[in-house]
Design goal:
- There is one protein chain.
- This protein has 274 residues and is α/β, with parallel strands linked by helices.
- It has 2 domains: 237 residues, Spore Coat Polysaccharide Biosynthesis Protein SpsA, Chain A (Alpha-Beta Complex); 32 residues, no CATH class.
- Helix content is 42%, strand content 19%.
- Strands 1, 2, 3, 4, 5, 6, 7, 8 and 9 form a 9-stranded mixed beta sheet that branches.
- It is globular and about 65 Å long.
């Protein structure tokens, strides 16, 4: 079988109808050059049986059921099975923004990466719809941006070379391993490219966003900052954040500020974004 262009990965456990919805909506994509790897942790709600019937009629669906140590371990197991040139993680209940997203992304990637035998060390990302509102991301990634927040992994297409060269998700993390991997790749020189396409629609409210996991989110973020940023960078970025730049940004955005203030703000922002 010829190597698929995309490996779309869905990890799940007792996902119910959300899994079937994700599978059927993916099948509506106009681009058919993909495999869909579904990694289930041993569901008992009947969702896997329903998908097994669909998979028997569609050879692109690769269903595997095995125990795992959590979501990032499940994602790593699925990566090991993936054959595609580029990997996308599609959570249960999430969907692509429209039926032509894979076709559009394939066109972009095919122009930039012409040799199918190469595992590209590249990431392409766009925007998404979160809880009904469009969530934009910057067209240029800087260390300061990644210090403050991660890229939304539901918007990211990973070249297989990212995992080959920089490793998989760190399973000692429960919430922010995708942020950690993004920084490992960024600091090692992975090519990041922005597209103005809106990639997917997702509702959030997953494990990482539950109120009871707030402290773990904070702890893992600090661990990531300590691992990927120098003491000098951390001091500089903390200073910038402490200066109340959020309030200033809001005033700048309101267009009520004078031109000189906007110029100073942009100069300071550029300094910290280096």
């Amino acid at each position: 079988m010829e190597r698929p262009f995309f490996s779309v990965i869905t990890v799940c456990y007792n996902a119910g109808e959300a899994l079937k919805s994700t599978v059927t909506q993916l099948a509506e994509q106009t681009c058919k050059d993909y495999e869909h790897i579904i990694k289930d942790g041993g569901s008992t709600d009947g969702s896997v049986d329903a998908i097994g019937q669909i998979a028997s009629l569609d050879q692109r669906i690769k269903l595997t059921v095995s125990r795992d140590g959590g979501i990032y371990d499940a994602m790593n197991q699925a990566i090991a099975l993936a054959k595609g040139r580029f990997v996308f993680f599609l959570n249960c209940g999430d969907r692509f923004k429209d039926v032509a997203i894979l076709e559009k992304i394939k066109e972009i990637l095919s122009e930039r990466h012409t040799d199918p035998s190469i595992d590209e060390d590249a990431i392409v990302y766009g925007s998404c719809i979160l809880r009904g509102e469009k969530l934009l991301q910057p067209n240029r990634i800087t260390p300061f941006y990644l210090y403050r927040r991660p890229l939304v992994h539901q918007t990211m297409f990973f070249g297989m070379g990212v995992f080959r060269r920089h490793g998989n998700f760190d399973t000692s993390m429960k919430i922010r391993a995708d942020h950690d991997l993004t920084l490992r790749a960024f600091n090692a020189g992975t090519e990041f490219s922005y597209t103005d396409l809106c990639i997917c629609v997702y509702e959030g409210d997953g494990y990482s966003e539950k109120p009871e996991n707030r402290q773990l989110r904070v702890e893992e973020l600090q661990r990531i900052r300590d691992a990927h940023f120098t003491p000098a960078q951390r001091r500089k970025y903390r200073l910038f954040l402490a200066l109340g730049m959020r309030r200033l940004r809001n005033r700048i955005a309101s267009k009520r500020s004078p031109a000189w203030m906007r110029r100073i703000y942009m100069r300071v922002s550029n300094l910290f974004n280096k």
